[in-house]
Amino acid sequence: xxxEDTPITVFCYRKPHFYILSSLYSENPGISLPVCYARxxxxxxxxxxxxxxxxxxxxxLGLVVSxxxxxxxxxxxxxxxxxxxxxxxxxxxxxxxxxxKKSGAEIIDATVPKWVHHAVEPIVMALxxxxxxPYAGELRGMASHFGGSLSDVxxxxxxxxxxxxxxxxxxxxxxxxxxxGRNLDYPHPVLRxxxxxxxxxxxxxxAYRGTSFAGYVGLWTGQSPNKFTVSGDQRGSExxxxxxxxxxxxxxxxxSPVSWLVRKTLExxxxxxxxxxxxxxxxxxxxxxxxxxxxxxGEGAVITRDRTGPADIWPLDPVNGGWYxxxxxxDHWLPPPKAANKALNATGQEHxxxxxxxxxxxxxxxxxxxxVYTTMMSAAAPAKYxxxxxxxxxxxxxxxxxxxxxxxxxxxxxxxxxx
Length: 419
Prior knowledge:
Order of helices and strands: EEEEHHEHHHHEEEEEEHHHEEEEHHEEEH
Radius of gyration: 22 Å
Largest sheet: 8 strands, mixed
Structural class: alpha+beta
Number of strands: 18
Helix content: 25-40%
Shape: globular
CATH architecture of the largest domain: 4-Layer Sandwich
Strand order of the largest sheet: 5-8-9-10-11-12-13-14
């Protein structure tokens, strides 16, 4: 990729050693953002008037510290009253089968080395009989709908369990309303095109909802209306060579994948306390942070999980100043994530709401180059559940002198033109 032939948006934020620039969604060429080629940026700007330069500078400085808002993913309704083998068929109304197969193969290849992939296929098939319902039937149905092998569908679902780098925040305002926001980060750009909001129906009513990826039966993000919200963040550094251990652990030792436990809890837990108990006690295949928000003041907690149980539960404590909790991918007793904490403190409890929390989650580096989507939710206001797929970003070397010049031009001359 070179500066000469790469169309980019010139409004970027600056980092040492490289620049990250927001690229347009290829499937939405009508997005009205100023786009140009890196070559000739300075010449084009020099032919524009001061007003246009001011607009460019203002937009640049507004985006220096934030991600663009993004687009809403499609929504599918999944009826839990249908047989597991057929309930995911509505995905085919939204996604192209061939694209799903190609994307799945790309994710597997990027996550699990080919020799491991081939070696574990017979093991996965032997373990298939240990998969608990309803997931066994759903995975078989996925393979049937998409025309792929069952082993690959199982491998793909466990590939998502390896690396979910995230930020989750729960916050309570002065009136006792609890808000829950999360960024989900994955190093697979194709996931932006696979992100989907899933509404799970029972007897025609919304049982729970979440945000997931097409072909994946688990949930890292979800909401049980008027009960609780939950998100999962990876704990520690899992590597592909531990992947097979997690698969065996899941089936032979009856430990749940972390995303399956989220879904099970959303379906079965009756309230916030019940959800915290379920997410704390049930054995899982690897460490994780479960972040839970409720419907009443004080109902919020970060659960730090080991495989067999809770290592720590960190509740909201608004009476003593703990009106928010931030969880990234580190134990909360370690040095805190400065960017999110600083932004929340600057916002203040009196101004926190769904919009301002979204702004916090849009700040760099809270929102970054591998952020796939941002979800905002509040169990007491289930209709406000909202997910935005973040635009893909690309890295360019600082030899793209025109971009550097543009940055310094705007930075140095904005005040001159404004005042």
